Amino acid sequence: MAAPTLWTRDQLLVAFTLYSRLSFGKLHSRNPEIIYYAKLIGRTPSALAMKLVNIASLDPVIIDSGRTGLSQASKADRQLWQELERDPQAFNQQCQQAIATLTAPDEAPLHAQEDTPPDYYGHERMAITTVRVGQQQFRKRVLKAYDERCCITGLEEPILLIASHIRPWKDIAEHRLDPSNGLCLSALHDKAFDQGLIGFNDHLELLLSPRLNALTSDIVQSQFEQYEGKQLRLPKEPHHAPNLAHIRHHRENLFGKHESIAVLA
């Protein structure tokens, strides 16, 4: 019986890219996206699906949820996971290069689509898009920590939720995947937080900037004013609660500083 062919690094990088895009329940050989990528890397859909479930066994989000992947993660799988944890940006670049290397010459060029829904694919042909692997992992962890609800309003539709970085992705590499550097916010509140229109005090109570407080529409009252001074919804796990140093940094360096922005869009 022939020995199994070892996975190449490029094949594993493609697998990690796909893992970052799919929910745990979609890691099966009938998934059209898995079928497509399996053909791309020269593996069977079953082999790729099994590899993805082995990768899942390394994912703290999966482990914390009580689910388990397969127990056959290889040394190479573990090494790549460590690379992802250590430097998500560099790892993402390697994933993009691996996909570019394995893509046929007549494939459409890659286009970065940061907000592409993770399971999106076309009916006529599978569109390959680059994804920030680390950011997808960060999103999984933050949404899991907050039970997939906006920590301000309680909105529970994942499509409308953003895993917001408290300190920007580019600022602190060592905290990029740490849920305590994240907030689960609706798309509206994520934009407001990113632009400094809202912030939080050291008690994690919502603050509104003077610019926002000056507005008088009903939407401002219903989406912002009624939550002013109220503490955000905290994660169940204390170690996932927002890092107060990061909250303070946002408040001191961004909150209320962009009073000249023209629109909230």
From TrEMBL:
Positions of the HNH nuclease domain: 150-201
Pfam families: HNH_2
InterPro entries referenced in this protein's UniProt entry, alphabetically: HNH_nuc
Identification of the protein by name: HNH nuclease domain-containing protein
